[in-house]
Amino acid sequence: MTRILATTLAALLVGGIASAQTPGPFGGFKHDRSCPIEITANALEVRQAESLAVFSGDVVAGQCTLRLTADVIEVRYSEEGSNDSETGAINNLQANGNVFLTNGSETAQGAWAEYDVDTGMVRMGGDVVLTQGENVISGETLVINLDVGQGRIEGAGSGRVKTIFTPSQASEGQAGSAEASPTEPVCTPEQEAAAAAAGLKCVPADASN
């Protein structure tokens, strides 16, 4: 089926204010939400009375480097823009089914996700898995603030968050070098006393000689 490019909503695909510059633990997800949003899908249903557009079938929503993919994405938008150059703006995206959120090297996946464009907050749930390079964190729910690149992941009920971290190879090499360092030779107390009695300073023999 020919994919549908959401050109009919082009005037609606403008976000809010620009992102802040404060770094955070989820820094790879820091994002400028003032970028336009482009959505492609296999089908599009517009419910004008509800200010709702429903995209279905291999849906991809892109905003600068941020990508949100899902089986279905529901888009809620305002009828009027925030300035004279806009006729409308997206307020919220609700994604369901095989949801993936990516930005650079960081990826989050789950059963559903909600992106509040006005606040820059993303909520994701349903066996969430967050991948940051070779590190993996899994839990039930994930909340990300795209403006500052900070997030929180939690387990469900008595469930716990599981984490797999890959140690730095450089750190391992440094640790191994430190353990392999030989002990420096020293004078015994008897040698020190004998040298002092002769008015000399004891110099320990090099173990390699």
Description:
There is one protein chain. By secondary structure, the chain is mostly beta strands. The protein contains two helices and eleven strands; from the N terminus they run βββββββββββαα. The protein has helices spanning 169-180, 189-197; strands spanning 4-5, 38-41, 43-47, 52-63, 66-78, 89-103, 106-116, 121-132, 135-145, 150-154, 162-164. Strands 1, 2, 3, 4, 5, 6, 7, 8, 9, 10 and 11 form an eleven-stranded antiparallel β-sheet that branches. Strand 4 and strand 5 (66-78) form a beta hairpin. The longest helix has 12 residues, at 169-180. The protein starts with a strand and ends in a 12-residue tail after the last helix.
What's the quick description here?
With 209 residues, the chain is mainly beta. The protein is 10% helix and 44% strand. The radius of gyration is 29 Å and the shape is elongated.
What letter string, H or E per element, gives the SSE order?
EEEEEEEEEEEHH
The backbone outline, from C-alpha atoms, is elongated
| Distance N to C terminus | 81 Å
Low-confidence region ranges: 1-25, 82-87, 177-181
Set out the fold topology.
Elements: E1 4-5, E2 38-41, E3 43-47, E4 52-63, E5 66-78, E6 89-103, E7 106-116, E8 121-132, E9 135-145, E10 150-154, E11 162-164, H1 169-180, H2 189-197
Antiparallel strand pairs: 1-2, 2-4, 3-4, 4-5, 5-6, 6-7, 7-8, 8-9, 9-10, 9-11
Question: What characteristics describe this protein?
Answer:
209 residues, mainly beta, 11-stranded antiparallel beta sheet, 2 helices, 44% strand
